[in-house]
Specification:
alpha+beta, 182 residues, 15% strand, 4 strands, Alpha-Beta Plaits
Length: 182
């Protein structure tokens, strides 16, 4: 596979995709856990660092960093979604596409903007009326960031490095009065 010109070592990307016709991509709790399990597998295989994620019923957001010039984010997401779609189609005796289109990838070069992306992603369940607090939603790593549990998917120390202190990070992420324009 030829390298997509935008994927280079140490580049950060906001990846997102949604279900075809805005339909669900996760049909039960097991689907979420299966997607996370496969995501962990492929992040290791493709040497991708996952800084933040949020899985919603009809879409997902990932904030990732490419760690090598030999393996690419495009291969990571392609493998993950192809495997996931095949398993969903088999489990629910369905065929065809699950996702609306190719996964979008926005390169993030301004390190000061990283915190805004995380806040935007972390608040998705609240905006969709699926949660009242960021820690209510089980399918993001918000609890890891806020030290309410100890997940192994993401590099929490890397995320904390975007802030002046851990206290500042927690206040920023939990303060609903701070509005995101992304």
């Amino acid at each position: 596979m030829t390298k997509d010109k935008k994927y280079y070592k140490n580049t950060f990307h906001h990846l997102y995709n949604r279900g075809a016709n805005k339909n669900q991509i996760f049909f039960d709790r097991d689907n979420y856990f299966y997607f996370l399990k496969r995501m962990k597998h492929y992040k290791n295989m493709y040497q991708i660092e996952i800084l933040f994620y949020c899985l919603m019923p009809n879409h997902f957001h990932l904030f990732v960093k490419q760690l090598t010039d030999q393996l690419f984010i495009s291969d990571f997401i392609s493998s993950l979604l192809n495997f996931y779609v095949k398993s969903i189609n088999k489990k629910f005796n369905r065929s065809g596409t699950l996702f609306e289109s190719k996964t979008k990838s926005k390169i993030i070069t301004d390190e000061h903007y990283f915190v805004w992306i995380i806040k935007y992603i972390i608040e998705n369940p609240i905006k969709a009326n699926l949660a009242t607090q960021i820690t209510d939603w089980k399918f993001s790593n918000a609890k890891d960031l806020l030290k309410l549990c100890n997940g192994t998917m993401t590099d929490i120390e890397k995320v904390k490095s975007f802030f002046q202190s851990e206290e500042q990070m927690i206040n920023f992420l939990t303060d609903s009065s701070i509005k995101v324009n992304y």
